[in-house]
UniProtKB/TrEMBL annotation:
Protein's UniProt name: IS630 family transposase
Residue span of region Disordered: 1-35
A Pfam family reported for this protein in Swiss-Prot or TrEMBL: DDE_3
Molecular function as annotated in GO: nucleic acid binding
Residues forming coiled coils: none
Domain Tc1-like transposase DDE per the UniProt entry, residue ranges: 2-149
Source organism of this protein record: Actinomadura soli
Bias (Basic residues) ranges: 12-28
InterPro entries associated with the record: RNaseH_sf (IPR036397), Tc1-like_DDE_dom (IPR038717), Transpos_IS630-like (IPR047655)
Gene3D superfamilies tied to this protein: Ribonuclease H-like superfamily/Ribonuclease H (3.30.420.10)
């Protein structure tokens, strides 16, 4: 069972709390505002009873160039789903994600219908991010990057990859993200044709 979601980080760091000497306010100087672009992350948090939890993700760079797409494309979503199909034991995927427009597009529906032998999709209720463990992953990522100053988009990308890989190496953290939703896994769902 995989929960999918998207998040993004611009060049401007998320605000966080910090310590400093009394009378000296901590400052993080950001040059260039948000003109440096944005890194978007699409991720899947995957669980199967008795097996190690996994985080599978893809990055999308938006450098604010003319004609450049700011969000993930259908091809990028398909690539991530096919990678999950290859990487996960058993290869069958029960995907749960939100109601983003591209998730309901005719092209995505055609892709899902063409792969019913290994892919089954369910949608979360509207306005229910608290039911998606991937939201907790993004919260961890953004908190770990509070007050982090990236020199450019490539530096930001390296930091995001580094932080996500650290989460990947700790399945207990991924398990805790499921626990925060109040959901539990009891059996492996069967995919029938």
């Amino acid at each position: 069972m995989c929960f999918a979601d998207e998040a993004g980080q611009g060049h401007r760091p998320p605000k966080g709390r910090s310590w400093s000497r009394r009378g000296h306010r901590p400052q993080v100087r950001v040059h260039g505002g948000d003109h440096g672009g944005r890194v978007s992350v699409a991720g899947m948090v995957c669980y199967r009873p008795g097996e190690r939890s996994r985080l599978i993700y893809r990055l999308h760079h938006y450098r604010r160039r003319t004609g450049e797409r700011a969000a993930f494309t259908l091809a990028e979503y398909k690539s991530m789903l096919q990678a999950a199909h290859q990487q996960l034991p058993g290869g069958k995927l029960v995907l749960i994600w939100d109601n983003l427009g591209i998730h309901h597009s005719m092209a995505m529906r055609a892709f899902i219908d063409a792969h019913t032998d290994w892919l089954r999709v369910f949608y979360l209720p509207a306005y229910a991010p608290d039911l998606n463990p991937a939201e907790s992953i993004w919260s961890l990522l953004k908190r770990s990057m509070a007050n982090f100053l990236a020199t450019d988009l490539d530096h930001l990308t390296r930091m995001i990859k580094h932080r996500l890989k650290a989460i990947q190496h700790h399945p207990e953290v991924i398990d805790a993200c499921l626990t925060t939703t109040g959901l539990t896994l009891t059996t492996t769902p069967a995919i029938t044709n």
